[in-house]
């Protein structure tokens, strides 16, 4: 089982990322179950704007797309900015829009039989909105979204410490992160063993 985490922080490496820290809790849970997990910090890559899988010279999205399609589990991890996913998360979703029309040799959309979940951090309210936006987009693209396949942390509205600056709420959030990992793994394993059937073109029996 392979999992890819897209860290959509606005902070380039090696700057510490609160989003990465919480996503790593989910990653640890997946590794305990036997999954091979890779995290990609998208802001470190040249991802061109657009809605195609390859936007030409210098575009690093094709390699990231390959990592996604080589995995059974996708996790998008985003900070909350002004109540919305980060601009980096939005760009990744826009690039994955191309998957809507991409199919395997049997006609099945490429995102089918893969599961997805969301990690959200931020010291302002809006986490549920971010989860809804990202999960809605990933579901449209074709990913399967298991129940309780998300985890978030914030301090509530207004300024305050970030995830890595405090232990506030960590015990509960880490329990949810563990449950998220188990649910993602279980549904991915179920789809691996009994995949969504190949699609039949309209007009065929």
TrEMBL record:
Pfam families, per database record: FMN_red
Domain NADPH-dependent FMN reductase-like: 2-153
Segments passing through the bilayer: none
Domain of life, source organism: Bacteria
Name assigned to this protein: Flavodoxin family protein
Species for this entry: Amycolatopsis tucumanensis
């Amino acid at each position: 089982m392979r999992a890819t985490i897209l860290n959509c922080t606005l902070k380039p490496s090696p700057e510490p990322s609160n989003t990465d820290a919480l996503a790593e809790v989910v990653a640890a849970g997946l590794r305990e179950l036997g999954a091979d997990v890779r995290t990609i910090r998208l802001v470190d890559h040249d991802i061109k704007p657009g809605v195609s899988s390859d936007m030409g010279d210098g575009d690093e999205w094709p390699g990231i797309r390959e990592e996604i399609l080589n995995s059974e589990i996708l996790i998008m991890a985003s900070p909350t900015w002004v109540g919305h996913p980060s601009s980096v998360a939005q760009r990744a979703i826009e690039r994955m829009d191309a998957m809507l029309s991409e199919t395997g040799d049997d006609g099945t959309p490429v995102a089918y039989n893969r599961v997805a979940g969301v990690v959200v951090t931020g010291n302002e309210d809006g986490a549920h909105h971010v989860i809804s936006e990202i999960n809605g987009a990933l579901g449209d693209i074709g990913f399967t979204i298991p129940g309780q396949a998300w985890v978030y942390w914030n301090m509530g509205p207004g300024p305050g410490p970030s995830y890595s600056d405090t232990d506030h709420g960590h015990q509960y959030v880490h329990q949810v992160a563990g449950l998220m990992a188990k649910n993602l793994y279980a549904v991915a394993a179920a789809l691996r063993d009994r995949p969504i059937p190949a699609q039949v073109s309209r007009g065929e029996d």
